[in-house]
Structure formats: C-alpha cells, structure tokens
Amino acid sequence: TFSKSKGLRDKEPQGESRIPSQFGEEERVAMKEALKGAIQIPTVSFNLMESNTTALAEFGEYIRKVFSTRFIQHEVVGEYSHLFTIQGSDPSLQPYMLMAHFDVVPAPEEGWEVPPFSGLERDGFIHGRGTLDNKNSVMAILQALELLLMRKYIPRRSFFIALGHDEEVSGLKGAKKISALLQSRGVQLAFIVDEGGYIFSGLIPGIQKPVAMIAVSEKGAINLRLQVSMTPGHSSAPPKETSIGILAAAVSRLEQTPMPNMFGSGTLEMTMKQLAHEFPFPFSIFFRNLWLFRPLVRRLIERNYITNALVRTTTALTMFNAGIKENVIPPVAQATVNIRIHPAQTVQEVLELVKNIVADDRVQLHVLKAFDPLPISPSDDQALGYQLLHQTIQSVFPEISIITPGICIGNTDTVHYTNLTTGIYRFNPIYLDPQGFKSFHGLNEKISVKAYEFQVKFIFELIQNADIDRVSVPHLHEL
Ligand SMILES: CCCCCCCC/C=C\CCCCCCCC(=O)NCC(=O)O
Ligand SMILES: [Zn+2]
Ligand SMILES: [Zn+2]
C-alpha cells in the first residue's frame, strides 16, 4: 500500500478482484522462451539513416504471433513502432503509458561469450543484445498484459503501451510520431514509465544495499561533428600541420578539459538527501553536512566515472574518420563527440564552452543533434506515477529499503513525450551491478531468468496498482 510513502492512500483495501502475481511452470517457461525469440531478431539501429528494417518488420510479426494483441487496439506508427491502447472501464481516470524500445545498438561478436543474437540460456541467464536494453521491457510489458487478460482482468484506468523502433538513434521516426498521434487525439497522460532508472547494486561507491532509483529527469545531449579541411597533396613533402593533427589536438583538448563540476543543483541533491545516511563513516558525515563539506563532497563525487557523470556535462569522443591513402595528405578529418548535458546547463552554454576549449577556427563545428536537459518530474506525496512505482517496488522487492528519485545519465524516448505529461518516470525493475551497467551497449549483455520473471511480476502488479482508487492525504511534515 501507499502507507509508507504517506501521500496517496488506497481508498478501499485491495479487494478480491486483485489477481496474485503467481505464474505456473508452463507460463514461466513460455515467458523466457518468448524473450529468447525476441533477442534472436537483430533489430539493429546503426545510425539515423540505417537500421535493419527487415528485422524491425519481423519483430512486429513476432509480437503478433507470441501475444494475443488482436484483443486490444494495436496500431503501427512510423512503419515499425507499435502503439497499443487498452481501454479501461472507468473513463474518469486519466490514462498512463508504459514505454520501451526494441531496437538495439550493434553488437559485433568479438569479445562476447555467446553470439549476441543467439538468446542462449546459460547458467540461469539469457544472453544477448537487448536483454537489458530494452527488449526485456518490451516483452515484459506485453507478457504482463497477456497474463492479466488471460486471468480475465479488466483494467479500470486506460493505458497505452508505446514500443519504439529507433530509440537508439533519436526516436524521431517512432516515439516522436506516436507522441504527435496521441496529441492529435487530445490525449493527456497522468504519467509515463520508461527505461533509465534501475535497482543499483554495488554501483554506488560505499553503498552495499540495493538502491532503487526512479529517474525523474535526464541529461540533455549534443552530437557534435568536428571537421578540419585542408588541401590534399603528396605525403613526401608534408605541411607543418595536417587536418588529422589539427583535429586530434582539438579533440584531445576536449577530452583533457572536463566541463565544470555543477554539484549543488538539480536532482542529485534529492538523491543525496535519501542516501546520505547510507554511506559509511566518515562519508555519511560529509554528505549530511554539506554546509561544511560541500567542497570536499564535490571532489569526492567526481572520482568515480559514474558519479562523475552526475555532476557535470560529459564529453565522449565516439567517432574519428580521416585519410584516404597512406601517401596522400588527408583532405578532411572528422570526429564526432557525444555530449551529455548536466541539468544546470543548456545546449547554448555547452556549445560556447566547447568553442572556447577547441579554440581553433580551422576546426568547424556542426551540431548534428541537440536538446536541453529534461524537466524534473514530481516525486512528492501527490505524484501519482512516482508513488505507484514506489509502492510497487516495496511490494515486489521487500528487501529494498532505499528508493530515491534521481537522474538518468543516458537518454530515452521520453524526450518526445514532454507535451503529454509532466510525470515522466524512468524505472526498470532490474538489479544492475557494475558488470551489468557496463554491458549496456557493451559486451555480454544478459538477464537472469529470475530477474526477467520479476520484471513481468512488477508490471503485472503496477497495472493493478494503477487501478486502485486513491484519496489524497494531507501532507504531514516530518519533525
Ligand atoms: C549518488 C547516486 C548514484 C546513482 C548512480 C547511477 C546513475 C546512473 C543513472 C542512469 C543509468 C543509465 C542508464 C542508461 C539508459 C540507457 C538508455 C540508452 O541507451 N539510450 C540511448 C543513449 O543514451 O544514447
Ligand atoms: Zn535503451
Ligand atoms: Zn541503449
């Protein structure tokens, strides 16, 4: 119930209509087999222009085959994305939306323990690209709905399921179009839930206990192309500087010059408030007494590469292309820099900083994509989406005692839905340890069969929790 989080309370106790989230052996086998099949379809997004469209189409066929989507309104949007509309019995309740994406980043086989699109089960884990990011969610959402419908559950609150096909390359053809379609129908959502927050385990230095982080905001981003052009010529009489040398020096300056540490603003303060007591001595003293230790904490946080990303705009050099032949002075050198913007900064401010760091007019800057950090969604007692997630985490994972709002350092399709709701929450009910975190876009991405079952159970519970009548409880200030 909501009693622990104080704000919203169930009007009625959960009646007999509540369906227990218990699944039979046959159902559990079918569940994991369905996920394996999804992993085997190589729905890779390479870049804005290029994706495996055959696989994207095949994925659509696959979900139709595995789930009884014919019983609910199912639309294909932007050629490959999917929008499901589940009509609730009580039109007075504002609808919500569950989101996920089924495109994945490329996965060259080198370095993987099992082929990345095999979906092989080994030692209790299903392996493959997309097992965490994010076919697990796509399949778990549809699976939970299917299991509820099979048990004759009739939702009271309407909800949508939006499954994007190009999240990894912007969401412009999928999520953006779904959002426009819903807007044209006059839909306003109570809240949305997407990927981007997790149950962190051993990921926050000093904290052993699991921390469920519901991301209430996410960083902005810029993809920036740096280019140097020069006249080609014979390499036996080289000029003093080449396009490659000039560009290399520029990107090296960017890598060597971190953006300013912005500790002291945004969602991190909220997260720190929740976590301060959990750190071991003497860190707990430092975090609880920022009035005295702020400068020290500011430095401590930037020591770890993950927490560093929470306090500053990050700059990652991700692509570098130059040269046409061994003995030709290169005409053009290009690099792509992927920047993630701290919520206290804007695209314009960061571009200005970049220009000053590059400080070389021969290096042209082209903005390929840019957006500001996302607004902070409410996490107070009255925030329905946040409180529903909070409640469901407490009931499905009773071992978790720390639930906190936070920020997602990656980007999600939610960027396209700010017109439909102010309640944007990013949370996947998955334990993520440092190895799991590194496997996002990396090697050996995998999910345990148990973890996947818990994800299905979580959504099964969340949908039912969203249907319980709630009354507001006056806010009680803690003494
Ligand atoms: C003191 C608090 C510590 C919390 C530390 C954890 C912070 C990590 C936050 C979020 C995890 C990032 C998940 C990434 C989501 C992936 C989505 C994605 O790949 N999108 C595409 C992209 O970003 O390029
Ligand atoms: Zn993702
Ligand atoms: Zn991703």
Describe what this molecule looks like in 3D.
With 479 residues, the protein is of the alpha/beta class. The chain has helices at 25-39, 53-66, 135-150, 175-184, 243-256, 267-275, 283-288, 290-301, 305-311, 347-358, 384-396, 434-439, 449-465; strands at residues 8-10, 45-47, 50-51, 73-77, 81-86, 96-101, 121-122, 125-127, 159-164, 192-194, 199-200, 211-218, 220-229, 314-322, 332-341, 364-371, 402-408, 424-426, 431-432, 446-448, 470-472. A six-stranded mixed sheet has the order 4-5-9-6-10-18. A four-stranded mixed sheet has the order 17-12-11-19. The protein has a four-stranded antiparallel sheet with strand order 14-15-13-16, covered by helices on one side. Strand 2 and strand 3 (50-51) form a beta hairpin. The model is unreliable at 1-6 and 475-479 (pLDDT under 50). The structure holds the ligand CCCCCCCC/C=C\CCCCCCCC(=O)NCC(=O)O and zinc ion (2 copies).
Keyword list:
479 residues, alpha/beta, six-stranded mixed beta sheet, four-stranded mixed beta sheet, 13 helices, disordered N terminus, disordered C terminus, binds the ligand CCCCCCCC/C=C\CCCCCCCC(=O)NCC(=O)O, binds zinc ion
